[in-house]
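Chapter summary example: a protein plus zinc ion.
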Amino acid sequence: MNLVRLAAIFVLLCSSACFAALDRAAFTFTSYDLELRVDPAGQALAARGKITLRNDSSQPQSVAAMQISSSLTWRLVQVAGKPVQFETQPYTTDIDHTGGATEAIINLPAPVPPRGTVEIEVGYSGTITPEATRLTRIGTPAATALRSDWDQISSSFTAVRGIGFVAWYPVEMESASLSSGNAVFQTLGEWKERQAQSSLKVNFCWINDDAPLTVVANGQLEGIGRTSPVQEGQGITGCTPYRFAPLGLTVPTFAIGNFAALQQQLITVYHIPEHEAVAEGYAAAAEKLAPFVAQWLGQPHSRVKIVELNSGQAASFESGGMLFTPLNPQDPKPLQLQMVHELAHASLSSERPWIYEGVAHFLQAVEREQQDGREAALAYMTGQLPPLIEAEQAVDEAAARGLPPPEADKQSLINATDDVFYHTKSMYVWWMLRDMVGDPALRRALQSYRADQDHEASYMQRLVQRQSQRDLEWFFDDWVYRDRGLPDLQVESAYPRKLLAGEYVLTVTVKNTGDVRAEVPVAARAPQGEMSHRVQVPAKGKAVVRIRIPVVPAEAVVNDGSVPESDPNNNMLKITTPPQSP
Ligand SMILES: [Zn+2]
């Protein structure tokens, strides 16, 4: 064996053995204080600052690690003013748009005891250009991938999202791959939850040829931005400080550009100066929909904030009460839905995603109903159902075989970290609640909600029960506190009978092969119209309902689309037996 090969084997052994002791979940990053220098013309950023890490493991830690985007390079790591020994390695992970991170593995000068903290001074720099490797390598066409991974620094368009998109501030978590189910969502969800109480302070600085630039970020503005000439004839520079504290579930995001601001009572739109007319369209839509949202949630407590992405193709992104979106003159209906969502956020705060996001998605469906009726709203929800069916598949399959659901695949709404749950499943849960208790009771419950009093999982349940005088324990238990998957409802049998008065009654037996109880409408249909009744179908059980209808019924249908089901295509039974005489 030659020396080179021996050396190679040694390196291999070392890279697995030497870092084996590295516990990537040991430290919580409790505070960041960074200065970010952004150079749009050079597509570059350089950062310098301090990060405090707290050892939340039960062991003393003598090694800490930090990941930044793979397009950035570590320049400096110091502890207590002294440079410390650190190694860097590329680390494959899909938490960053490049599909990788640059990880610094830092030998701390002294072990940090459990609950102890260490302040690390860092410096790093590099470029942030459009990149979608993490998506293209799993087969997403490049153009589609770049619509979703649009983050970049450039002279025409600078907008960069944080964790989950671009690691522009250091983080640390185990590698997660988009090719393995919802591993990336789960890893990011756990990271956000752990750092929810942390604070991030960033002084965003920029340099430009001639025109001053504006920094917009989804944190709290800390004072006024300052600008100053760099040097005679060498352009100008400016800085704007923002604070994200507590971080909560916010993805810290910034945009830097030549923005004009359209300020109204309900909304602020940061747009490129030529797009004033489109921005006014957004503001007008918000104005028009405000009474509808207020009816459900009361008056808004903050302004809707919209930041234009100067790339017509980019997918909208929302976080921390701010919407980053291309401003396109669009059909009024989708725009109205978008504005309802944002107004909902401005009117209802909650640290629970199933409430904060779920209610916003639910009100979009209700607005869809305002626009074109209940059928249209149900079709709008059904359009979002397939990813939920997929996410619940493992749980549903276990239920079908009479097995307990696989622990790793369960996501109770109350703890859900995957957005298909707190967007889509939650939207359905609110809609089902509405169908069960009625609009007035649900509106009163939502308006009596106070985020600062929401200390227990059952708080929302109690509010809805108080307003509706209904015991909803079973519903919250099956749909919110636990993940029991989705029901699968079918009509088992339907027998018509003629009544003396010339009417008909249809006796329908409905069966549920899923593991979750549901209250669902059952309809007797005829060419002339339909009559329906609501019925509760137990998990793995049956329910019988009798529906009176003035004409001969032709079919029985369970579920009008308001209850999400694992198989929505087996809900109708044609009636073949002639009605029995009275
Ligand atoms: Zn939202």
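Key point: The pocket of zinc ion is lined by residues 318, 341, 345, 357, 360 (CB under 6 Å).
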